[in-house]
Amino acid sequence: MSKAFVASQPGGPETLVWTDIDTPPPAPGEVRVRHTAIGVNFIDVYFRSGLYPWPESTMIPGAEAAGVVEALGEGVSNFASGDRVAYVMRHGAYRDERNVPASQLVRIPEALSDAVAASVMLKGLTTQYLVTSSYAVKPGDTVLVHAAAGGVGLLLGQWLKALGAVAIGTAGSAEKVALALQHGYSQVINYREQDFVAEVRALTQGEGCAVVYDSVGNDTWRGSLQCLQRFGMFVNFGQSSGPIQGFALSDLAKGSLSANRPMLFDYIATRGDLERRSAELFQRILAGDVRTDRITQRPLADVADVHRDLEARKTTGSIVLVP
After folding, report:
1. Which among 25, 22, 37 has a CA at the least distance from the CA of 85?
2. Most buried residue among 29, 118, 270, 314 by CB atoms closer than 10 A?
3. Residue 173, SS3?
4. DSSP structure class, residue 195
5. What is the pLDDT of residues 168-215, one digit of tens each?
6. How far is residue 256's CA from residue 252's CA, in Å, rounded to a whole number?
7. 314: exposed, middle or buried (C-beta count within 10 Å: 0-12, 13-18, 19+)?
């Protein structure tokens, strides 16, 4: 018998209840993983609240985790008991152990801690595909990133700098502005005190940005489009302020803009894609191009309070839950 935080109906953080669950022996092709660190992401809130549909009548949130292999299902030959592994899936990680398809696991490099691995499987792989595939960032590009002091935002600022781009961020407090400036951004705009559209236009001498990475959604999308240069790309990869409302294709006509709404799981749908993107992510971290120095560790038992802080935008960097 294992234990997990389970929600029996969509709702607030109080719906998450520490519950006994049955975890059978791993099926063929599966691996039993004992969790040592579990990452927290806004997608967890989307599932818990019911914004994203549940696959079953109950929900265990949690998209990324690291742990130790404890048992192997039939046919698994590329892992062994005791291996340190990490994964990213849509949900199911808020528990002490689980069975995971071996095809969705990657080994953690020896020099990386479990906490770091658990904090970057979703956020780091998201950063990787954003700058290489949603829009292939080039040296000299000017890029706008909303929520620059969040988990993905801090990784994006550093990765963009390593690519030779000029990164402009937005953040909601003086503390968050200062933090983002320490992680690769050349300029960070406090959107609570300044009009970010006017500031971006001034910083770019009216030219605008090659791409905007927007995980905020409804509160920012109109301004994001106004920050783009001719032929610019609007990438909406999250909706922390709610789903975008009122968007029409004609909104892209001024400047012949492009827009996309990517999902990480499409970019790691094959084993080859997962391995390739994970390898580049780990390489960037080990080379020092991307620091993971803003990880807050909290007990798994505090998950409801962590969700409240996340929804109130009180968090910076990454949060990792420790079973």
Report:
1. 37
2. 118
3. coil
4. -
5. 999 999 999 999 999 999 999 999 999 999 999 999 999 999 999 999
6. 6
7. exposed
Which residues does 66 contact at the CB level (< 8 Å), separation at least 6?
Answer: 35, 36, 37, 38, 84, 85, 86, 108, 114, 115, 117, 118, 121
Tracing tokens 């922390």 back to the chain, one arrives at 240
Contact in structure between 104 and 125 (CB atoms under 8 Å): no
The pLDDT tens digits for 206-228 are: 999 999 999 999 999 999 999 99
What tens digit of pLDDT does each residue of 271-285 get? 999 999 999 999 999
Please list the residues that pair with 235 across neighbouring strands. Answer: 213, 260
Measured CA to CA in angstroms, residue 39 lies from 44, 193, 222 at distances of 10, 31, 31
CB atoms within 10 A of CB 159: 24
**Measured between alpha carbons, how far is 14 from 159 in angstroms, rounded to an integer?**
36
Number of CB atoms found within 10 A of residue 200's CB: 25
Q: Who's near 89: CB < 8 A, 6+ residues apart?
A: 63, 64, 100, 104
Q: How far is CA 184 from the centre of its chain?
A: 18
Contacts 24+ apart (CB under 8 A), 174-179: 175/316, 176/148, 176/149, 176/316, 177/149, 179/149, 179/154, 179/294, 179/316, 179/317
